[in-house]
């Protein structure tokens, strides 16, 4: 479709704009963690069923992204980080984003149920609802705990992958959920620390806006202190092992060092070096999650050779 931007010049939406509408970077994390959940489950899944399941989980994640972008058009237009997204930039109309999000949601849930099982489909439907309604429409604009509670939406994918294989949940899938859930607050609060005025300009009650950056720095440290032992404990579940233990000890040592460095800083120091430590912690947190799930996957891959697990 063609929309008129602030300049008055029509811009035709291309394939890349519709891909961006689905938030592909977020989708990549969803796909990876869901795939790990599926592959490490103690049930062998036919490759075509596994591929189909991951495809529709990815489609559901994309649907959530489109619905979020439709609802957040007003605040995305204000924030520097988001103003060039397809909806706030005027490339894709809000109504079109809503229609795409609803259509993809229905397709993803129904097809996942037909291809795998109803439990996995129901969990996907709840995840889309939680992200689009509970987080985007309610929590994000009303409470500084938006990221803490809303983090559940991003934590469900490995549980969905596990459910595709097993039709249920387990201690292991709950651990993977908890790992992402506890990782989310320090990850996003470190982002908020160096985004400066974006959230206040948009009226989003992020912790940095409602309680200030010193309190946010303390919260980053507190949640990191809670996250580290949880992550290490995963080594002693059915999906852990010595490789995972070595990986998590190294990553969480690094995590805690970074969190302490953030906690000890004041705004004058952070401003002087352009929030270098905060940006570094944010980037590291991305690797932190991918490497934890990579280690879980590696443990499962080594088990047939008698090398993975305890």
Any overview of this molecule?
With about 300 residues, the protein is an all-alpha fold. It has two domains: about 15-165, Tetracycline Repressor, domain 2 (Orthogonal Bundle), CATH 1.10.357; about 170-310. The chain has helices at about 15-20, 25-40, 45-70, 75, 95-115, 120-140, 145-155, 155-165, 170-195, 200, 205-210, 215-235, 240-265, 265-270, 275-300, and strands at about 1-5, 10. Strands 1-2 form a two-stranded antiparallel ribbon. A hairpin with a 5-residue loop joins strand 1 (about 1-5) and strand 2. The N and C termini lie far apart (about 55 Å).
Can you lay out the helices and strands and say which pair or pack?
Elements: E1 2-4, E2 10-12, H1 15-21, H2 24-39, H3 47-71, H4 73-76, H5 94-115, H6 118-142, H7 146-155, H8 157-166, H9 171-195, H10 198-202, H11 207-210, H12 213-233, H13 242-264, H14 267-272, H15 276-302
Antiparallel strand pairs: 1-2
Helix pairs in contact: 2-3, 2-8, 2-15, 3-5, 3-6, 3-8, 5-6, 6-7, 6-8, 7-9, 8-9, 9-12, 9-15, 12-13, 13-15
């Amino acid at each position: 479709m063609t929309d008129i931007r602030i300049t008055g010049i029509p811009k035709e939406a291309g394939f890349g704009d519709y891909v961006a509408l689905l938030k592909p970077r977020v989708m990549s994390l969803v796909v990876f963690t869901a795939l790990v959940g599926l592959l490490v489950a103690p049930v062998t899944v036919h490759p075509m069923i596994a591929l189909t399941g991951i495809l529709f989980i990815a489609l559901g994640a994309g649907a959530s992204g489109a619905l979020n972008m439709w609802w957040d058009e007003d605040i995305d237009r204000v924030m520097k980080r988001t103003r060039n997204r397809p909806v706030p930039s005027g490339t894709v109309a809000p109504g079109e984003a809503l229609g795409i999000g609803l259509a993809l949601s229905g397709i993803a849930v129904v097809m996942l149920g037909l291809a795998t099982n109803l439990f996995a489909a129901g969990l996907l439907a709840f995840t889309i609802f939680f992200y689009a309604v509970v987080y985007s429409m309610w929590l994000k604009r009303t409470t500084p705990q938006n990221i803490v509670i809303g983090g559940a939406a991003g934590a469900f994918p490995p549980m969905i992958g596990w459910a595709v294989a097993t039709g249920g949940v387990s201690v292991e899938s709950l651990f993977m959920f908890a790992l992402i859930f506890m990782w989310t607050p320090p990850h996003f609060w470190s982002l908020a620390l160096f985004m400066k005025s974006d959230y206040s300009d948009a009226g989003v009650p992020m912790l940095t806006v409602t309680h200030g950056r010193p309190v946010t720095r303390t919260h980053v440290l507190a949640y990191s202190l809670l996250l580290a032992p949880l992550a290490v404990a995963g080594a002693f579940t059915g999906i852990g092992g010595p490789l995972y233990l070595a990986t998590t000890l190294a990553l969480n040592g690094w995590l805690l060092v970074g969190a302490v460095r953030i906690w000890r800083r004041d705004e004058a120091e952070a401003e002087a070096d352009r929030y270098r430590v905060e940006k570094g912690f944010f980037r590291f947190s991305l690797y932190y999650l991918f490497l934890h799930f990579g280690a879980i996957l590696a443990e499962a891959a080594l088990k047939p050779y008698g090398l993975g697990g305890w």
